[in-house]
Amino acid sequence: MIQENLATVQNNIASAVKRSGRNDDITLIAVSKTKPVQMIREAYDCGIRDFGENKVQEIVEKYPELPDDIRWHLIGHLQTNKVKYIIDKVVMIHSVDSEKLALEISRQAVKHGVCVDILIEVNIAEEESKFGVSAKDALPLIEKISRLPGIKVRGLMTVAPFTDDADLNRPVFSALRQLLVDIDSKNIDNVCMDCLSMGMSGDYEVAVEEGATFVRVGTGIFGAREYKRVEG
Ligand SMILES: *Cc1c(COP(=O)(O)O)cnc(C)c1O
User: Fold this and answer.
1) What is the pLDDT of residues 147-163, one digit of tens each?
2) How many structural domains comprise the chain?
3) Burial label, 209 (beta-carbon count in 10 A; 0-12, 13-18, 19+)
């Protein structure tokens, strides 16, 4: 099942790339939260190396069970006091939304002798239930944290509203892309705005058409999760 699902998702991404006339790379992150290591291994055996988890504890548990060349992405809300558990296990933290969190990531990265790529989570749609900074606060936050050691700001991430009609999220995705371009044009030292993490199972094709470089697909690869959809 996973192999077929992956083929479908990869084909859909390729078609969306073609439609949009893009020629840059898109990384499919298989979101494996709540799913057992056997399923992750199945996706790994199909060639997937990028996996996304939204809970620190799940990364900590799965990490030693799985191959070293997996690139783990922390995509969910991260509490400052838990940074230390995952700092040497993840390649990218997609959900940075405060100076306090960035400071702790920097502190732990230096302590562990690593450099971690981070994305700023932006609540483009201004949904009350969502984490992330508002669009207008993204640049000031990046300016504040850009020179911290051990971290590198690489771009922006958003969790778009849940909808049955993916096209409704097109303005959300294009607004995030425009924000990335605007911030990139400021040429901030040590900041490289080349990553745009947006699009989930219901809307990743639209996100690719609007410029996503990372799509985060869970259900579309691994099937439904055993709990009701909770935000964040
Ligand atoms: C769960 C999750 C996803 C994947 O959601 P699906 O709808 O199952 O594809 C993507 N991004 C974040 C931040 C998530 O928490």
Assistant:
1) 999 999 999 999 999 99
2) 1
3) buried
Q: For atom 4 of ligand 1, which residue has the closest CA?
A: 218
Residue from 5, 50, 51, 54 to probe ligand 1 pocket by mutation (most atoms less than 8 Å from CB): 54
Assess whether the C-beta atom of 35 lies below 6 angstroms from ligand 1. Answer: no
Q: What is the pLDDT of residues 31-90, one digit of tens each?
A: 999 999 999 999 999 999 999 999 999 999 999 999 999 999 999 999 999 999 999 999
Residue 14 sits in a domain whose CATH number is 3.20.20.10
The CA 217 to ligand 1 mean position distance, Å, reads: 6
**CA-CA distance, 86 to 82, in Å (whole number)?**
7
Would you say the CB of residue 94 lies under 6 angstroms from ligand 1? no
pTM score:
0.96
Q: How far is the CA of 146 from the centre of ligand 1 (A)?
A: 27
Q: Is residue 100 part of a domain?
A: yes
Residue 232: inside a domain: no
Domain membership of residue 88 as a residue range: 2-222
Residue with tokens 């799913």: 35
φ, ψ dihedrals at 15, nearest 5°: -65, -40
